[in-house]
Amino acid sequence: MARFDKPAFDVTTAIAPPLPKTDTAMAAASRAAGAELQRRLKYQALQCMLRAIETLEAVPEGDWRGRLEAVERLGREAEAEDR
Fold it and tell me: Are the beta carbons of 40 and 59 closer than 8 angstroms?
């Protein structure tokens, strides 16, 4: 009669075998690098928003054409920085 107290096939290790320590360290380093990149992107986005607010505040409130030109200029400057 067969014994059923221990499975002959372990599903968890067949699907995802345990990672060696080097893979675990690489995964941790990858997560840390991703977090740093995300932090820098948030900082750049905040700088961009602040620059836009300051630019729009410098244009008189009723001058919609001036505001549009200021926003277009900001867009061109941002594209130039990306290159």
Answer: no
What are 75's two structure tokens?
């867009």
Kindly report, residue by residue over 5-54, the tens digit of the pLDDT: 655 555 555 566 666 677 778 888 888 898 999 999 999 889 888 988 89
SS (H, E, C) the chain: CCCCCCCCCCHHHHHCCCCCHHHHHHHHHHHHHHHHHHHHHHHHHHHHHHHHHHHHHHCCCCCHHHHHHHHHHHHHHHHHHHC
> To which residue do tokens 């030109």 refer?
69
Residue 71 burial (10 A CB sphere; 0-12, 13-18, 19+) = middle
